[in-house]
Design a protein that fits this description.
The complex is a heterodimer.
Chain A (H helix, E strand, L loop, with lengths): L7 E10 L2 E11 L4 E5 L6 H8 L7 E6 L2 E2 L4 H5 L2 E4 L11 H11 L8 H11 L12 H13 L5 E5 L7 H13 L6 E6 L10 E6 L2 E6 L1 H6 L5 E5 L3 H9 L4 E7 L2 E6 L6 H14 L6 E4 L4 H9 L9
Parallel strand pairs in A: 3-8, 3-9, 6-7, 7-8
Antiparallel strand pairs in A: 1-2, 1-4, 4-5, 9-10, 11-13, 11-14, 12-13
Chain B lengths: L7 E10 L2 E11 L4 E6 L5 H8 L7 E6 L2 E2 L4 H7 E5 L10 H11 L4 H15 L14 H12 L6 E5 L7 H16 L3 E5 L3 H4 L4 E6 L2 E6 L1 H7 L5 H9 L3 H5 L2
Parallel strand pairs in B: 3-8, 3-9, 6-7, 7-8
Antiparallel strand pairs in B: 1-2, 1-4, 4-5, 9-10
Helix pairs in contact in B: 3-4, 5-6
Classes of the chains: A alpha/beta, B alpha/beta.
């Protein structure tokens, strides 16, 4: 391979399971040392994509290269160079922290001692519990142990499938902070998450839904691609305000967003000031005197919804 | 209990296990029709507190009434007055939509006629009429979540406990789900939401944050952000619940 080749190159990959389309003509590439996120709900195809890239599954159509090697024909050369942390906790629950780590090291022909430098930032946090059975660790510690096991053979690229699902907010943040410490090492990291707010911890993200990539860009560019003025509406009775605004002819979209409702207007020619003042007038004439309207910046989640078109379909009859 | 009384009233509620205090004199109240986020880090005592509030675990000391029933003497009445939905488990995947509804109706002692009426009302509200005889595992996750929520409300509970209700669903389905919660709240059903997903907490009317067995903060998301001078509940949570060796030892 040439030095310039991207760490991951995916070319028109499709995969079906019976009638279910898991991946539909997916193409993208990830640069070396990039942190690349896949953001999408359960069932979007994130896990299937990671299994293909880690040589555990083959695509029906299309092809993929990781570190310049073909994921199908060159899998043996590739496996020792990639680290994979699956979504489900996949360590041995009856083995201790140290036993699990030693096992994974030995599979790759190495030892904890030899790799200490590599795993030290994480291992130091696990060390107080080194003799504890992994089943008895908290969610956050389990995740750190799994990351440690995925790193112990010094992979050049790391695949983390929903590493922060099911752990509390403190552990989530710590986990992302840990990934920051690998930034200098030049390791390429592909990470998937259903949490839209984690997009901002990545250099670039792909939004994925129903096996299709909806967008690939920096988180900022994806948020900024929302192409209408957006307003946050605050009101005591947000559900009734939501219902009322659904009936307003100018409404393009109105939906709950945290404490507020997010409103976008249909009209292309109306200024933000005009929309805001008409919105205020509408709300006060409908008995929502307490409602406040303010322009707000779109987020990755707003863009995701705008690009989705429709949610998962109603099951076919 | 009168219409206007609080759905949940908790005073100095405590639970110890041997020498370890899992829940340490917590006090709070939730109004009827309120959507209340009950937050806490792993090991903060949240699960123990919820088990006491749902009549599954007797407190060591303190008082609590749930829908007007006393947690010490009326645990069975509490279980009938509440609904529960978990993201992890709520419906039987190998039963059809209709069979799941019938099963839960039976568990809550509804009459055949009530089950029939509520089944058809629920299916038409959810737009699932044509899927009534499909296996639950065959319907999309987002619809399963909405169905699970409706099933948790089948016996018309006063309070519904929701555990990570929208984690893993797409953002549009997620909002449809919150609309269902707001709608139920508007009809007077109180919702107590537990979640690790602090984005989700921002959708609640009020939230509390448990740290090391105690309630460290309580208020509307707006009030708390002002009080802590923070941009999000996530930021407040991380500040309050920074893990310590102690919190891991509590596991």
């Amino acid at each position: 391979m040439t030095a310039a080749e991207d760490a991951v190159v995916v070319d028109h990959v499709s995969k079906r399971f019976g009638p279910t389309v898991a991946l539909a003509d997916v193409s993208f590439s990830v640069e070396r040392a990039e942190r690349f996120g896949f953001i999408g709900p359960d069932g979007a195809g994130k896990t299937t994509l990671f299994r293909i890239l880690t040589t555990l599954m083959t695509p029906d159509k299309g092809g993929a290269r990781v570190l310049g090697r073909d994921v199908v024909s060159d899998l043996w050369a590739l496996r020792a160079r990639i680290g994979y942390m699956p979504g489900r906790f996949s360590l041995y629950p009856d083995l201790s922290v140290d036993e699990n780590l030693r096992f994974f090291a030995s599979v790759f022909g190495t030892t904890i001692e030899r790799e200490y430098q590599q795993i030290a930032p994480i291992y130091r946090q696990l060390e107080p519990f080194r003799d504890r059975r992994s089943a008895a660790l908290s969610g956050g510690m389990k995740q750190k142990l799994a990351l440690c096991c995925a790193l112990v053979h010094r992979p050049e690229i790391l695949f983390l499938d929903e590493p922060t699902t099911g752990v509390d907010a403190v552990s989530r943040r710590e986990f992302w902070d840990l990934l920051d410490t690998f930034k200098q090492s030049g390791m390429t990291i592909l990470v998937s998450t259903p949490y839209m707010d984690e997009a901002n911890r990545c250099d670039r993200v792909a939004l994925i839904q129903g096996g299709r990539l909806l967008a690939i860009d920096t988180p900022q560019a994806i948020a900024d691609s929302f192409d209408r003025p957006l307003f946050a509406v605050r009101a005591g009775d947000r559900y009734r305000v939501l219902k009322a605004l659904r009936e307003w002819p100018h409404t393009h979209s109105i939906y709950p967003f945290g404490e507020t409702l997010h409103y976008a207007d249909k009209r292309a020619d109306a200024s933000a000031d005009q929309i805001a003042s008409e919105l205020r007038a509408f709300l006060s004439s409908h008995g929502f005197a307490d409602a406040a309207v303010a322009a707000t910046r779109p987020t990755v989640e707003d863009s995701f919804m705008a690009r989705m078109g429709a949610p998962e379909g109603v099951p076919a009859g | 209990m009168t219409e206007t009384s609080a759905a949940i009233v908790v005073r100095d509620l405590t639970r110890t296990f041997g020498g370890f205090t899992a829940v340490d004199r917590i006090t709070f109240a939730v109004s009827t029709g309120e959507v209340f986020g009950f937050l806490g880090a792993n090991g903060a005592g949240k699960t123990t507190a919820i088990r006491m509030l749902t009549g599954l675990l007797a407190p060591t000391s303190g008082q609590a009434t749930i829908a007007g029933y006393d947690v010490y003497r009326q645990a069975e009445q509490i279980k009938r007055a509440i609904g529960y939905m978990s993201q992890r488990f709520s419906l039987y995947e190998d039963l059809t939509v209709r069979e799941n509804i019938t099963l839960y109706g039976g568990i809550y002692d509804l009459t055949d006629q009530q089950i029939q009426e509520r089944t058809s009302r629920m299916l038409s509200q959810l737009g699932l009429d044509h899927a009534a005889d499909q296996f639950v595992r065959a319907i999309p996750l987002g619809w399963r979540q909405k169905l699970a929520f409706s099933v948790a409300l089948l016996h018309e509970p006063k309070i519904v406990f929701l555990d990570e209700p929208t984690s893993g669903v797409d953002p549009i389905t997620r909002r449809q789900f919150w609309e269902l919660i707001y709608e139920a709240a508007g009809r007077g059903t109180t919702a107590l939401v537990t979640t690790h997903y602090l984005d989700e907490a921002e959708y609640c009317d009020r939230v509390s944050i448990m740290v090391a067995g105690r309630i460290a903060a309580i208020g509307t998301p707006g009030e708390l952000k002002k009080e802590f001078n923070a941009a999000s509940i996530d930021e407040i949570f991380v500040r309050l619940a920074r893990p310590t060796a102690e919190s891991e030892a509590r596991q």
